Amino acid sequence: MAEPTASRFFVALRPDPIAARRLGQLAADLARQCRGRPLAARDLHLTLAFIGELPFSEGDRLAALLAGLPERNPGFAMDEIGRFGPALLWAGPEEQPVWLAEMVAAVRERLSGGKVKFDRRPFKAHLTLVRNARDRVGVERAVRHLHAKHACPVSHWRLIVGGSHPDPSPERRYLWRKLPAAAGGADAP
What is the DSSP letter of 11? Predict the structure, then answer.
């Protein structure tokens, strides 16, 4: 496959593989209830800074800007289910850990120092589970029913640079780049 010319980039935390599978199953269950489109377990992430479209080759520079920040970070429970508007369901922590706010500030400071433009909206810790929910009654029922019942512990989070996949599918929407200190380059799995 030829290298794509551009990608929509973001800096995010990815949950450990076991938590990702659990959250992926939760996304599939929620999507069935509200006739939405679930994110696959391999695509789940908690965005710290959304950058937007840049040339694909900028991914390595973005990862280099974050070098030295902790790649592996402590875990916390995703114990809240919520929604943005009528069609997007998410999971997040009821109480945001202090280290997470510090990480967001550090990432945004590095991006600013590298003259990278990004969305500066206030940070709300959330991991998107379902997009395009079409059944509003199903959304309300799902959020009420699952809010407290499906806490998902995450043992650790990995800091990465994500970008849109050149050939997205339901199984894979994003490509991941590890930080240079963690061996760098695009993550194939």
Answer: E
